[in-house]
Specification:
Elements (H helix, E strand, L loop, with lengths): L30 E6 L2 E6 L3 H4 L5 E5 L2 E2 L3 E6 L4 E11 L4 E8 L8 E4 L4 E9 L2 E6 L3 H8 L14 H6 L10 E3 L11 H10 L2 E7 L22 E5 L1 H12 L4 E4 L1 H12 L9 E5 L14 E5 L6 H10 L1 H13 L10 E5 L3
């Protein structure tokens, strides 16, 4: 009987200088490590069209990142930082937020953000999140006064470059609800997408609004004790139809990122008569080894944080030992890691 996997099985040491804290000037100029079992091939992301076949289906996440980080003061004068996790009621201007301050907010307390341009009142708690009610519509003011919520490991303040580079080129403006980018998609530019289309690769979209929990390491010793954060997911019927047709015609489904993978595999759990159909709702799916993938044939992904649920997902997909070997190779070859880093193309481990 195989011993259970522990969270420490997904730890590794990364030299600090390999963390990519700034984007490349050209999105598709990043490197691409092709992982096929134990075989590793060093490529450029612009080589991707040569690795896919006519009739394959590439699935992308069309969410848009909110400028969700705000700074200000409490009505007592103390400094406060607010990160909006999810807007739960647009009409009443209510959001669930992460709040950092010297003392926790109390019910009824006000915070004044963006030099007084935005005011919110603390209404209650939802687990580790604060429920804030703003004095006017939230999204419009976020665009004006918020900062792009770049990851904490960048160890810097967001700048104008992040407003563009920490957003995919194909995001849907109407789907502004993420607090982190679907980072595997950041490598795609218009030229790469056109080259894929010219090759005969189909493109389809799903939506998953990424929460701040995507950066949270698993803190339980036994990874099966970890409680996964919930994120909104939507597989449109049109994309489900394309996936069903691709499978029927012998093509492969390539998920761009762990967010797309979670949407597709969640929908697979809700399939009807063996076929995918539209899925809309929250997902808390936690994918770790061993896992039988029902939809995704290949996965494009970045290099992930130690002890993260994302590293566990890719290990389930490509094989634990294969991923360990791939990460060791990437470190030795000085690949760039995390959100602005390089990419991998993973073939599914049998």
């Amino acid at each position: 009987m195989n011993k259970p996997l522990l969270t420490t099985d997904f730890d590794y040491h990364l030299p600090d200088e390999l963390i990519a804290r700034y984007p490349l000037a050209v999105r598709s100029s990043s490197r691409l490590l092709h992982v096929k079992g134990e075989n590793l091939t060093d490529l450029q992301f612009s080589d991707l069209p040569n690795l896919l076949n006519k009739g394959d289906l590439l699935v992308l996440n069309d969410t848009k990142v909110m400028k969700a980080r705000l700074f200000g003061v409490k009505d007592t004068g103390g400094a406060v930082e607010v990160l909006i996790e999810r807007i739960t009621d647009h009409e009443k201007h209510i959001a669930h937020c992460h709040v950092r301050s010297s003392r926790a907010l109390k019910v009824g307390q006000k915070v004044h953000l963006a030099d007084g341009q935005m005011t919110a009142t603390m209404c209650g708690r939802s687990e580790n999140l604060f429920i804030l009610q703003f004095d006017k519509p939230i999204l419009n003011d976020l665009d004006k006064y918020g900062q792009m919520p770049i990851p904490p490991y960048f160890e810097r303040t967001a700048d104008d470059t992040d407003d563009t580079c920490y957003q995919t080129v194909f995001h849907d403006p109407a789907k502004q609800a993420s607090v982190a980018a679907p980072t595997a998609s950041l490598h795609f530019d218009d030229d790469t997408l056109q080259a894929l289309t010219d090759k005969g690769v189909q493109i389809a979209f799903v939506t998953l609004h990424v929460g701040a929990g995507t950066f949270a390491p698993v803190k339980t010793d036994d990874l099966t004790d970890h409680i996964m954060h919930a994120e909104y997911a939507h597989l449109p019927q049109a994309t489900a139809d394309k996936i069903n047709a691709t499978k029927a015609n012998g093509g492969q489904v390539i998920a761009v990122g762990t967010t797309v993978t979670r949407v597709l595999e969640t929908a697979h759990l809700h399939r009807k008569d063996g076929r995918l159909s539209e899925f809309m709702g929250d997902t808390q799916i936690f994918i770790y080894p061993p896992y039988d993938f029902g939809v995704v044939d290949r996965l494009i992904t970045n290099f992930h944080l130690p002890k993260s649920t994302l590293l566990m997902l890719v290990s389930a997909f490509a094989g634990v030992d294969n991923i360990k070997q791939a990460y060791a190779h990437a470190i030795s070859q000085e690949y760039r890691f995390f959100s602005y880093g390089d990419a991998m193309l993973l073939d599914k481990h049998n």
